[in-house]
Amino acid sequence: MAVSNQRTDDTMCPHRLVLEHLTSRWGVLVLIHLLDRSYRFSELRRAIGRVSEKMLTQTLQTLERDGLVHRDAKPVIPPRVDYSLTDLGREAAEQVRALADWTHRRMPDVEQARRAYDEARDHRSRAR
User: Fold this and answer.
1) pLDDT (0 to 100) of residue 86
2) Binning pLDDT at 50, 70 and 90, where does residue 3 land?
3) What is the average pLDDT across 6-31?
4) How far apart are CA 103 and CA 110, in angstroms?
5) pLDDT over threshold 90, residue 11
6) Is the backbone peptide bond immediately before 75 cis, with ω within 30 degrees of 0?
7) How sure is the predictor about 6, in pLDDT bands with cuts at 50, 70 and 90?
8) What whole-number percentage of the chain has pLDDT above 90?
């Protein structure tokens, strides 16, 4: 029987795996939103927008497992579950928000670099 060379999440470099969780499309948005306050699941889903229930559930579970998100299930009817950041999660979320803020501030420079790159590539293509 052949042994697979593919790594599973549990055997992957732990630093890389946490970085992937922090910088995933939905992970970034969850962390940034939870910096402001705690959210119920449906509130968070509406605040983020365009995320499926399944994907948000998986993202929250992953961030909870990493110790970044706290899930507080209250024994009431109807059930109420609130999500908030742990101290570790708050620290990570502040870093993620700083990167998001930098992206927002520097987007004109990125767009200019993209135009210059595309123009140079087009010029090289026509020169052939």
Assistant:
1) 98
2) very low
3) 85
4) 9
5) no
6) no
7) very low
8) 85
Q: What is the SS3 assignment for the chain?
A: CCCCCCCCCCCCCHHHHHHHHHHCHHHHHHHHHHHHCCEEHHHHHHHHCCCCHHHHHHHHHHHHHCCCEEEEEECCCCCEEEEEECHHHHHHHHHHHHHHHHHHHHHHHHHHHHHHHHHHHHHHHHHC
> What's the pTM?
0.83
> What residues have CB less than 8 Å from 33, skipping those under 6 apart?
39, 44, 47, 48
State the Cα–Cα distance between residues 4 and 108, nearest whole angstrom. 44
> What tokens does 1 get?
């029987």
C-alpha closest to that of 43 among 82, 2, 1: 82
Q: Cβ distance 38 to 82 under 8 Å? A: yes
Kindly tell me if the per-residue pLDDT of 4 is higher than 60: no
Q: Which residue shows structure tokens 């994907």? A: 55
b/e sequence 24-39, b meaning 16+ C-beta within 10 Å = bebbbbbbbbbbeeeb
